[in-house]
């Protein structure tokens, strides 16, 4: 079906090419669960998904005659890479999850910082 090359790219061999319009149904069939929207699959192979380790994970596709195709094996590889990346602990330097400060709160923080700098003579 397919094999992973040493450079991390997938190479298809004797696989059935799945066109873009059939990708959501193929994802549902291969991975189970609900069928994703076609735009979701486009995002997977375009921008990709940011994994837990910070890297972008993209669904492998091949352009043939100006059209986008993937394989069931590449869908499985995408799922496995995503699962592996989410098992890595997130960086401790990342902003903690929680509500974002409101504009007034951010402004207050800036004013406090300016006052501290003036008090230090900076």
Automatic annotation (TrEMBL):
Region (Disordered): 83-108
The protein's name: Uncharacterized protein
Organism domain of life: Bacteria
Biased composition (Basic and acidic residues): 83-97
């Amino acid at each position: 079906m397919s094999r992973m090359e040493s450079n991390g790219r997938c190479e298809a061999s004797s696989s059935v090419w799945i066109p873009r319009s059939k990708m959501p149904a193929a994802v549902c069939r291969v991975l189970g669960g609900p069928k994703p929207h076609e735009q979701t699959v486009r995002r997977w192979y375009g921008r990709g998904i940011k994994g837990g380790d910070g890297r972008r994970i993209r669904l492998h596709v091949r352009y043939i005659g100006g059209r986008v195709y993937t394989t069931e094996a590449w869908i499985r590889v995408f799922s496995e890479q995503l699962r592996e990346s989410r098992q890595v602990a997130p960086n401790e330097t990342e902003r903690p999850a929680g509500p974002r400060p409101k504009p007034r709160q951010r402004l207050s923080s800036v004013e406090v910082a300016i006052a501290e700098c003036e008090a230090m003579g900076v």
